[in-house]
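subagent[fold] <- orchestrator: predict structure for attached chain, return tokens only, no commentary.
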Amino acid sequence: MVVFYFCIMNKEHKIFGIYPVLEALKSDTVLDKIYVQKDIQNPKVQTIIDKAQIAGATINEVPVEKLNRLTKGNHQGVVAITSPISFPTLEDTVEGVLSTKEMPLFLVLDQISDVRNFGAILRTAECTGVDAVIIQKKGGAPVSGDTVKTSAGAIFSIPICKVDHIKDAIFYLQGSGITTIAATEKSDQSLFALDFKKPMALILGSEGKGVSKSVLSLTDESASLPLLGTINSLNVSVACGAFLYEAVRQRSL
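subagent[fold] -> orchestrator:
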């Protein structure tokens, strides 16, 4: 007996079941994340993992309870989250921007995990003329319907590039003549001492840890915001706005 499986997608853009996910991988559907049941023994699931890695989707091995919470349907050990956008390559994006702009501005997000911060950052980036946002494939906030909502639709107006490792992206940007600047409270240099009138990439770190040490050691410069109160840090999306609008201010003079 032949059993036909149909692609089931709900309003949260989830696809579940082995065959629906396989069909999605064969089509033009962009999958952001795929949740696979931990320790599942099924060659079809391994095929999904192999194809997803080639397609650049993030694979997360999770307990079956996680999958049960994601959907009430027969997930067969696999749930995929579709992306509302496609992801251009870093190389094509940087090359295209450099061919048209003398002072491009890129934004690199090092493990931003909160979808509300991610969406707010995208909104600010679009409003301040950022040419592209660069994120890591694994470990960051998902590009989902919630991201679309919190970004006020800005996600559709700014290229988002996914890379395997942020460090590799920094090397590529530097090799392309772009100055990399980390926003970190660990820096003794003030934001207002920076020169934004050059090709540059601003790097922002995660909500809890900031820019990772391994990334920070590679950047050309770093800077912090002056804090006059008793709290020693700002929300990352607020800090992002301060840095980007300083770039706008300097470049408009």
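orchestrator: received. Logging for downstream: Residues 14-82 form a domain with the 60s Ribosomal Protein L30; Chain: A; fold (CATH 3.30.1330.30). Strands lie at 14-16, 31-37, 58-62, 78-82, 105-110, 132-136, 160-163, 179-183, 200-205, 221-223.
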